[in-house]
Amino acid sequence: MGLLSRDIKSLNDLLVQGLGEALYAERRCARVLPTLNVKTSDIQLKGELNAVLAGSAACVGRVEAVFRLLDRSPKAAECPAIDGLFIGAEEINGEIDDPHVLDSAIAAALLDVGTYKTARYATLIGWLRQLGRKDAAELLQPNQAGCRRFVEALHMLTERRLNPRAGGRLEPAPRLAS
Q: Is the pLDDT of residue 90 over 80?
């Protein structure tokens, strides 16, 4: 079942598809973030990525719990949008030699991912409320809040630290030992 396919006949069908995409996005993040974290040299950026990774299992669990509340088996649905964002992040980090520029590029890619996920959760929460499933909507609110917090923290970090350092306007921070 793809987005806008004939298999989607109701808002409920659209909701289930969206939940599958959210589950896919959360699982993809859990797989990709450790790889990006290894390539990151900035201590604060590593801290943000570690915080997201620490909450990753809970996010997946909440999406799966919503499926169960809807009497559905949790099933991930491929999400071309999140795939494209991560493909871009993976390609960028193979092309950049300067560690400060790489940190800035990784943060930018993760801002895109976090913004997508924040919007996806807002949509799912709205659909659940429309369908009278306030209980399920409340389960997803921590996921949306966590994504929003991550985006805000990354935005502040990139504006105040990563981008200026990548542009040569800040003293380099000590690098982490390899």
A: no
